[in-house]
Amino acid sequence: VMIDAFKRASAARVVAVIPYYGYARQDRKVRPREPISAKLVANLLTVAGADRIFSIDLHAGQIQGFFDIPVDNLPAGPLLARYLRSKGLFADDVVVVSPDVGGVERATLFAHMLQAGLAIFAKHRPDANKSEMVAIIGDVKGKRAILVDDIVDTAGTITQAAIALMEEGAAEVYACCTHPVLSGPAVERLRVSPIKELVVTDTIPLPPEKRLPNITVLSVAPLLAQAIRNIHENRSVSAILQELTV
Question: Least buried of 48, 148, 218, 229, by fewest C-beta within 10 Å?
Answer without folding.
Answer: 229
